[in-house]
Amino acid sequence: MRKFLHRTCLCLLLTCGVLAAQDVDVTANVELITSGKKKGLDPSNVVLWLSPVGDAPVPAFPPGSKPQLIQKNKSFIPHVLVVPVGAEVEFPNRDPFFHNVFSLFDGKRFDLGLYEAGTTRDVRFDRPGISYIFCNIHAEMSAVVIALTTPYYGISNRRGQVTIPRVPSGRYTLRVWYEAALPESLSSLTREVTVSEGGAAALGLLRLPASSVPETHKNMYGRDYAPPTPGSPTYGHP
Asked: Which of 26, 68, 90, 117 is buried deepest, with most CB atoms within 10 A?
């Protein structure tokens, strides 16, 4: 009986060790290119994600605190936010004046209306997609919320380094998003990759054509933003 229990425990430990070893940290490096030349652009906020191919089960996102897109100093913090599909995101106003957050894009269309300092509004991102977020009062404010069905994603840092942690062995479709890249450039980087224990866990260098000129946008009514009114309680001081 003791021998049986010993062998059983040993098998369980070996099995758990093998299962744990199957998870791999997948890495990549991003380089932004303009007109075929490296221009020293900030390569942060490039998002990579891996979607399992075929009928492989997709685990839920790990539990965490409720995601927030904070309004502070006429900016959204963070600028890029990745959430699981179905997540409810808080939009707290921590400026001493009003904001009016909206998005007219397919990821999630909404208008939170005018709301004052110290208050918050919530939005549920109930389908996968990319939502470009703006404020109807402050033209300089913008952010992006990316709702995914897979927890295997990473966001590049200022060195262009990306890590997608704890990816199980298997086949995946790699997708890439960057705010200043054209859709066709992003589509050209989509490909199938294989993650295997003991195999190469690096996706290599991803060269991404990008624009160094920020795009302008209209307000929620499709019009140009009106110049700020000095002393207005909705705009605030510079």
From this structure: 26
